[in-house]
């Protein structure tokens, strides 16, 4: 899945969900080292756990952040799966 971010330095996030777990997370643009670290830390985690840990994280008063956008992307993916 590819998710277009809003309000962050990163412009999009791509990822896969396999058996309820997060795989192959990649951010486009943004703080490379931090985003590589986030991607590595969430690899293989259950998506509900990722959402719980990352949702609501704020970056510099923007009301969102790259981790928060990942949580939003995962929620969006879940809604699409449930509707489909």
From TrEMBL:
Superkingdom classification of source: Bacteria
The keyword Cytoplasm is annotated on this UniProt entry: no
UniProt keyword list: DNA synthesis, Nucleotide-binding
GO MF term (any one): nucleotide binding
Entry-linked InterPro entries: CHP03905, TSCPD_dom
Gene Ontology BP annotations: DNA biosynthetic process
A Pfam entry, by short name: TSCPD
Enzyme class: oxidoreductase
Keyword Zinc attributed: no
Catalytic activity: a 2'-deoxyribonucleoside 5'-diphosphate + [thioredoxin]-disulfide + H2O = a ribonucleoside 5'-diphosphate + [thioredoxin]-dithiol
EC number(s) given by UniProt: 1.17.4.1
Span of domain TSCPD: 5-77
Family as reported in the entry's similarity comment: Belongs to the ribonucleoside diphosphate reductase class-2 family.
This protein's name: ribonucleoside-diphosphate reductase
Source organism of this protein record: Ruminiclostridium cellulolyticum (strain ATCC 35319 / DSM 5812 / JCM 6584 / H10) (Clostridium cellulolyticum)
Biological classification of the source: Bacteria, Bacillati, Bacillota, Clostridia, Eubacteriales
């Amino acid at each position: 899945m590819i998710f277009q971010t809003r309000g962050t330095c990163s412009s999009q996030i791509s990822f896969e969900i396999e058996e309820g777990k997060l795989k192959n997370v990649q951010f486009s643009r943004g703080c490379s080292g931090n985003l590589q670290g986030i991607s590595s830390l969430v690899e293989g985690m259950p998506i509900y756990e990722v959402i719980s840990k990352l949702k609501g994280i704020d970056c510099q008063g923007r009301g969102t952040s790259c981790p928060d956008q990942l949580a939003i992307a995962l929620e969006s993916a879940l809604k699409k799966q449930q509707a489909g």
